[in-house]
Amino acid sequence: MSEQWLLKKIFDNSYRIGGSARMRHVLKDLRDRNQILSVYPEQGAAVYVTTIIALDVDRKSVLIDEFTDDGHDLAWLVPGAMLSLVGRNRRLYVGFKAHFIEPLEWRGAGAYRCDFGERFWLLQQRRYYRVDLPLMKRPDCTLIDSRSRTFRARVIDLSIGGFGGLLNVDTAQEEDLPQPGERLSAVRFKLQDGTKIACRGRVANLRRASPLRHDRVILGIEFDALTAADEQAICRYVREREREVRRKERGF
């Protein structure tokens, strides 16, 4: 994935989110994990790197490490200059636009203060956008493997490309589960509106649900031979679920 493609894609409005609380949470996580951010000035071809060193919630600003000029002229960095910052946080690409406010000294080192306003984007590092399902609205799913064995799971996240299925299992039985790469002859579950989804599938990955829980695993399932009607139904559900999350973030 090229940087130019990502820069163009991540700031598409279809990936824009609202909610200052969510934004602060992600920025804090970027700071705590000391994640590198690429900085693209609004004007100029140079790309810089930085990290978030502090958040000033009261002033709605973020402090970032000062750039090394590396031979580039920093004359463009004046109050009001627009910056596009892009980084990675867990399985997401994160982007936000900020106005440069001022240079300052932070704990004996140079830093920059920028605002972070309300413009914030997330782009999942997946082919299809995926949403988490509410705890009380996770449908039961039936999986049948190539040996005609049946497994029951709960759908915990969903996209038009596949889903995560939570299984209760004893440690002794884990080796008997469908393994990554194995084909599933049947995948069946219902969406919240009652739409029945039925197709074949493939196990993309197998992982423990939690280091502290040895009796639960998550199967990452990819859909195979999903009908156009089922794909549209899932797409509608994913969009509605994302709207629901956004409304809650905004207090509606």
Structure notes:
The protein has 252 residues and is of the alpha+beta class. The protein folds into two domains: 3-124, Electron Transport, Fmn-binding Protein, Chain A (Pnp Oxidase, Chain A, Roll); 131-249, Thrombin, subunit H (Beta Barrel), CATH 2.40.10.220. 17% of the residues lie in helices and 45% in strands. The chain has three helices and 16 strands. It has helices spanning 3-10, 20-32, 228-249, and strands spanning 16-17, 37-41, 48-50, 52-56, 61-65, 82-89, 92-106, 109-115, 120-124, 131-132, 140-145, 150-158, 162-168, 183-190, 196-210, 213-224. Strands 1, 2, 3, 4, 5, 6, 7, 8 and 9 form a nine-stranded antiparallel β-sheet that branches. The protein has a six-stranded antiparallel β-barrel with strand order 11-12-13-16-15-14. A hairpin with a 2-residue loop joins strand 6 and strand 7. The longest helix has 22 residues, at 228-249. The radius of gyration is 22 Å and the shape is elongated. The relative contact order is 0.12. The mean pLDDT is 81.
